[in-house]
Amino acid sequence: MTQKTMIQAITDALALELENDENVLIFGEDVGKNGGVFRATEGLQAKFGEERVFDTPLAESGIGGLAFGLALEGFRPVPEIQFFGFVFETMDEIVGQMARTRYRMGGTRHLPITVRAPFGGGVHTPELHSDNLEGLIAQSPGIRVVIPSNPYDAKGLLISSIRSNDPVVFLEHMKLYRSFREEVPEGVYEVPLDKAAVTKEGKDVSIITYGAMVREAKKAADNLAKENIDAEIIDLRTVAPLDVETIIASVKKTGRVVVVQEAQKQAGVGAQVVSEISERAILSLQAPIGRVSAPDTVFPFGQAENIWLPNAADIEAKVKEIMNF
Question: Among this protein's residues, is 129 annotated catalytic?
Fold first, then answer.
């Protein structure tokens, strides 16, 4: 075991999969010699060569199209979209092509593509760089959306994603890249896709979330514990498809639930979680479902991010509201 940041864990996973399978290819804007804008691919081109790790033009639609074609020819492409806010330029390739190909071809072909991209607020990037757009992809059947919240999961989930025969959008929250370290095994290991984690067990209320909001939920839970409120935290890890079984088991256990997402409330992942709970466990609820999210406005400029983004205090306040219902 070694203490690693999330970006180090991601680099480790990419190196191991390049070594494990000669069909794994990594490409995107500045991912070669420069190692990517966040250095996630640093040193990989020097080790594995320019034919395995290479730069592309500044054209997300071209990156998506190249990944689609390579996958059809038997490769396992791992393209990087430099910031997920630029996903609109390659939406047709991801949602219109990758997500539909297995159905279109009657299950005779696989699309083992892992689209990596940084996303999320709190680091004061320029406009269009921080947007939380995971809900756009999550509502599209045929493609997984995976979002780790810590270094251990990031490495294991990325290896599982690259080895999967299904297309995956793998989103890495920028604020988590270098904000903390944890023990990460040196070798290959997999964290299962489509399976949520019970990050903290509790009996009074379930906090269901993902990505950077897991860290905020932990802070909130620590404060709530001082007031004898025992919160359970569920880290979704894969937001499409959802691990409904783990969600419902937690809700039936606690009887109260707060769903948290960094993205705007409108049509996000949280809405699907709420819907599943309402359909499957409404009679287990002792209070209305609480929701914490960003406001339904466009993502603000960097100066206003700290006001706009949800945080531990917002989660704590919503839990108390639910507990006092």
Answer: yes
